[in-house]
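Researcher: Go.
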Amino acid sequence: MGNRLSKKEALEYAGLDNKSFMNYLGAGEFCCFERVNGRGRYYFDSDVLDKWKELRNSNTVMLTKDDYALCLDFALAQHFRNYVMSDFGTGRQREFGQKITNWIKGQLGEVAVKKLFKNKYNFNIELDFEIHDDIVPQDIIKVIKNGKSRDPKIGVGIKSSKPKNVYLVLGENEINIVERRSDVYVYCRPDIPDDHLLRVTKEAIINIVKNQPHFSRYHEHIPDFADIHCEVVGWCKYEELRQVDKIPGQDFDGTRFVIESGKLKRKDEDWKELISLL
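Model: Structure:
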């Protein structure tokens, strides 16, 4: 047993804000000392937090600007598919930033899984970055071994969410429609900044606004692009998901299939198991 930490001390020790910390605790990624009747102060074992941090770090991949560019290219191709001039000025245009962010986030998760497999286990996979008219549920399309390429033995879906989120959430049709279902789902948390588009267009934006009256107020604060951390949180078989109509803090319109991040397979031996299944 390590040091006994108060909640305030544990927050600082883990390097997390209160919201993320309590989300991870609630999802079972780590635990606290037992509280009397579920009440009273929270106390934590530093050894437990050390193990959690070590596991989290080992599953975290750094994504470069080249990785981001690959994902941005895919997102822009998705945006402009079937694009017609009548779309200009519609809600589609107003939602551009959010749509691009969502697509980039999803693809960054896929790239992170590929890099984790390569860097930690020398296992090579090929991802599907083609633009399809129909929904393609499987994100790993090839396994490459000894210079030869083959189809994976199972279907894998890779899902991404924000760093503070702790639920892998799938729509009802993604599970109930057999053709759309994957055998295994991998959950990722890419830490993509809200201003990522500003960062990659920094020079162009500065060139446009440099002679404007307020430029001196903010130009030194426009951030540069930096590598993106992406935690490959863990994986599960689709049978391990449970059907619900809500999760803490969110009521769904209909039902979803979910699992908490703390219940995912995420240790070294778990990743080796997944690789053996592929």
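Model: The radius of gyration is 21 Å.
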